[in-house]
Amino acid sequence: MPDGKPLIQTENRKRVLRLSFLATCVLIVAGTAWSQMSLSEALNTGPSASPSPEPGVPAAPDASSIIRRSLEMPSDIEDAQRALRRATDLESVRGDLEEARSTQSEFRQRLADLERGGYQRLERISSLHDQALAQGDRLSALGKRLAARVAAIEALRREWLAKRAEWQVTSQLVARAPELASFAGDQQQAFRQIEDVVRLISQSIRPVLVVQQEIQTALRVNQTMLDRLADLRLSRRAALLHRSQPPFFSPRGLDGVAKGARSLPRTLDYRKLLNLPWVDAHIPVFLLQFVLIAAIAFAVRRVRKSPDVAESFPVLRRPEAIGVFVSTAVFSGAYQPTPLLWEFLMRIVLVASGARLAGVMFKNRRKRILVSTLAAIFPLPVAIDLFRVPDSAARLLPLIVGLGGAVMLLILAHRHDKVRRGGAGFSILLRTAAAVLIVAFVAELAGYSIGARWLIDTVLASGFVIVMTVILIRIGQGSVRVLLRQREGRFKALSSVGYRLSGLLVWFIRIALTFGASLYLLDIWEIAPSPLQTWQKIMNAGIHLGTFDLTVSRMVVAFLAVYLAAVTSTIVRGLFRGEMLQRRGFDAGVRNSIVTLTHYGLIFLGLMFALVALGFRMQNLAIIVGALGVGIGFGLQNIVNNFVSGLILLFERPVRTGDIVVMDGTWGVIRRIGLRSTIVRAFDDSELIVPNSDFISEKVTNWTLSSRHARLSISVGVAYGSDVTKVFEILASVAAGHDLILKEPAPEVLFLKFGDSSLDFEVRIFVEELAHRFSVTSDVLREIDRRFREENVEIPFPQRDLHIRSIAPDLSLPVETRSTGDKGGSDS
Fold this sequence. Notes:
The chain has helices at 13-45, 63-87, 91-114, 122-176, 184-238, 251-262, 264-267, 276-281, 283-303, 309-312, 319-331, 340-361, 365-377, 380-386, 396-419, 425-446, 449-484, 498-524, 531-540, 552-583, 588-614, 618-635, 637-652, 692-697, 724-736, 773-790, 815-827, and strands spanning 542-545, 548-551, 660-663, 666-673, 677-682, 687-691, 701-702, 710-718, 748-754, 759-767. The chain has 828 residues and is of the alpha+beta class. The chain is flat.
């Protein structure tokens, strides 16, 4: 290097790093493409074929190979029969298929009821659509299972056909060789056995193909129902703006209402209300729901013992209502398809428990009134379907609810505006709902009954979904935060990570419930299809690049893998930093190493699961890692050096968390050891971020590596002529009288030397903690000064002897003469 200049100048380093990054990206892309081509070639070409033998007559097999293959034949036949029994065991498949057919029969009956005409609630259509969609997914999965069995049987058939061709050639060769004539009978018997196996395989595949065809037929029936439901939704949407009834106050309208009210008792079919077969089929679900109610109520009672629960989370004051509300919300999907009577009862249970929770959850009296009114009205649309109220009589619902609800909402909004503090979002929501109800009222008066009832159902369902989501979020965040902040009891170990972990879990609960509520609201207002279909469309959306599919579902699974790894790491670190490792006698350094390695290990596993979920193959990852190695060789040496040094620090532990170290003359305490850098807090409360490589390659003084004890050396000088024995006694008594000075090792007083101006002594003492060194030194010096003054022991000033060898003549005059002469000279 000429003139001592570095090989790479400072202004060129950014350029080198950019080039390194571009080279790394090019290598990653090239490596990935190469791996895909190599994998495709391997899959397409397969293993290289062995060289074909030269043309000619094949040689006859020897006797040993004929005997060996004949002995192996029974075992091969038994393996083939076992594989056939597994592949042709259709009992479970037929059971699932029969259950699907029974469900489809019920679906067809419900679809016929929906197509009978008149107004139909959208949630009934959407519920049946989602159930049919889920049924189609189950049938598709069943078809894939059967297709795998068909493929296994076909592979077994090809294997035995190849075996038959091989034995046929062998039999011909044996017949031509006179020395193998004794094996001809065995060859013929083995060939007949192979023929029987091939015939058995051909016969076994037929029933499997029949069941597969039946599954395809069931799938076509299911798709037909989905198409009919889609048509029903479209026709229903088109009927919203058509007049389906005469104006309400017209003679025909009033007469229709009266006739509908008189015919109400005759339209009710009391025999179909209970639906006892459905009840018998769902008894296990009822039992599970009751068990969940009891478990939730018991858990809430245990959790709410914390003294600040009543003030912070008042919703937890109602454990039974929480159990009923949460269990009904959870198991509502398990009762599908739900008869109208049970749907009506479930709505009553939900709104009753929700209203009870809202009574303690909302401090705003207007919100409590709104929730109670919604709870009273929400079951009415189901009651109209349950009791088969004629459409002419059902017109009273939009009129009463539309006018009364609009008036109540406007009054609540007016009162809220008078006392509100902050934003006006609640008032805007109330006025918007009131405007929709007024439109429904006017539409019903004009005879647009289908549109009016749709508006009423939409407002009620939207309000119910919003209130239900808010209650579930409040219950979730209250339970999580109280559970993770307990300082005593069974869950006290989680209190150390309570605030951070509760924030993560509450955030996840809010996102999940808000997203689910959004799907239902989009369906309620007919902006999007049914919730399940919307969910599938969102999850299947993505980017398709050749054989690589990056869908939303994969990204969600990858995110959840990393998120769960982070949450698990938070829990484990909190438990380790709490009492788990401390009770087992691990010091702070070992605990920090275990916690750090566990954290990065869990995050690494989460990242691996995320990459697998995104569709990356392990061989591609190996190539990417190789490309990264090349990039590291270009410009990332320092990062890797610090990373490896961090691992060395965690395993070798030359410095640990809490150690007092000195680096470049700076004293500090190790606060955290990461995989790239270490944070050191200096004694002036500044924080130093030190690369890990400095602790490995540089000289570091660790005052607390093997012991927290520290030795102090205090130097003292006394005047010449002082009583040395008395000085020894004073210094020894002062060292022995301080509480923070250790008795073992005992303090030591030493007479070091005769100094220039003093007799030099040194007091060597040990303190238990290095942090006490400054305060102990100050106390000892102050006490020595006091005792020396009492005992008249002098601490001298520095003394020097001055010898003058030559001096100028004018400087030898007396001082007075020189001063006078100088003054006279100055006067003249």
